[in-house]
Write a structure and sequence with these properties.
By secondary structure, the chain is α+β, with helices and mostly antiparallel strands. Helix content is 40%, strand content 13%. The structure holds zinc ion.
Length: 266
C-alpha cells in the first residue's frame, strides 16, 4: 500500500481534477480514502478542492472524529455519507462526492442514468440510480444511499450531485468522470430524438467481458431484463491488472464491440 503522504498527494491531485473539470464549484465536494480498519483520510470543509496541499488532509475515525492532520481545518460534514459506505462495503477503499453539472441535472430532474447505451459504461458501472433526497450532512443521505450499495459503485443524489466508490482514489474519480460523460452523451442523444438501447444479448456479451476482465466493484447486471445469467452484486477477485491497463483494455474491447455493432445488419 502507498504511504499516507502519497495518498494525501493523490487526494490533492484528484481534488485538482474535480475542480478543473468543473465537477465542483467553490468549496464543494469531498474525497476520502480508507487507510486502516478505523482510519480514513479526508478533505477539509471550507476549502476549494482545487487548491489543497497534503498538510490540509485530515485523518478521522469511523465516527468521523478528527484524529490528526489539517491544522485548524475541520473534516467535511458530509463525511458521514462516506463512512456509511465504508461500513457497508469493506471492498471500497475510496469515496468521491461531487456535483458534476450534467449528471446533477439528471439528479435534479429525477432521471436515473440507467439505459444500456454505452458499452464502456455497461462494462464499468452498469447503471447509475438516484438515491432519494436527503438533507446534506444529516443521516438522511447515508440511509438513502445504503439501499444501492449492494449492486452499485455510483449513485446520483436527488437534487444534489453524485457519489462514487472504488478500490483507490483514482478508481473512484474515474467513475465520477464516467458518470458525467454518460450524462452528457445521454442528454445530447435525448436532444437528437432519444437513446437507442443495446439489446439484451449485446448487454450480456458486455457483462461476460466484464467478468473475464475481473473488473472490481459491484454491478447491477442487465437492468433491462434482470434475468441475464451473469453473477452480479459480487466483488470478483482482483485480477492484479493495474488500473490504467484495465482502462485501456476496456477501451479496446469497447471499440471492438462498437465496430462489430456497426457491421451488424439492421
Ligand atoms: Zn454535495
Amino acid at each position: 500500500m502507498a504511504s499516507e503522504y502519497q495518498i494525501k498527494q493523490d487526494i490533492c491531485e484528484v481534488g485538482r481534477r474535480i475542480y478543473t473539470r468543473g465537477f465542483v464549484a467553490s468549496n464543494d465536494g469531498n474525497i476520502s480514502v480508507r487507510v486502516g480498519e478505523n482510519e480514513f483520510l479526508t478533505t477539509p470543509t471550507g476549502v476549494s478542492k482545487g487548491f489543497m496541499t497534503p498538510d490540509m488532509i485530515i485523518k478521522v475515525d469511523m465516527e468521523g472524529r478528527k484524529i490528526a492532520g489539517g491544522g485548524n481545518l475541520k473534516p467535511s460534514s458530509e463525511i458521514k455519507m462516506h463512512l456509511d459506505v465504508y461500513k457497508h462495503r469493506p471492498d471500497v477503499r475510496s469515496v468521491v462526492h461531487a456535483h458534476p453539472p450534467t449528471a446533477t441535472a439528471f439528479a435534479v430532474a429525477g432521471i436515473p442514468l440507467d439505459k444500456p447505451v454505452l458499452p464502456e459504461i455497461i462494462i464499468s458501472l452498469g447503471a447509475v440510480p438516484i438515491a432519494k433526497y436527503g438533507t446534506p450532512s444529516t443521516e438522511e443521505i447515508p440511509l438513502a444511499v445504503r439501499e444501492y450499495l449492494d449492486k452499485y459503485d455510483a449513485v446520483l443524489l436527488e437534487n444534489h450531485g453524485a457519489l462514487t466508490m472504488g478500490t483507490d482514489v483514482y478508481n473512484a474519480f474515474y467513475k465520477m468522470e464516467s458518470i458525467e460523460h454518460f450524462a452528457k452523451v445521454s442528454l445530447a442523444a435525448r436532444q437528437l430524438g432519444g437513446e437507442r438501447e443495446l439489446p439484451c444479448p449485446e448487454v450480456e456479451k458486455l457483462l461476460q467481458i466484464r467478468e473475464k476482465l475481473g473488473v472490481s466493484g459491484r454491478h447491477p447486471g442487465c437492468v433491462d431484463c434482470g434475468a441475464c445469467s451473469i453473477s452480479v452484486g459480487e466483488a470478483p477477485a482482483a485480477t492484479g491488472i493495474p488500473e490504467d491497463e484495465l482502462q485501456e483494455i476496456i477501451t479496446r474491447v469497447t471499440q471492438r464491440v462498437l465496430t462489430s455493432l456497426g457491421n451488424r445488419k439492421e
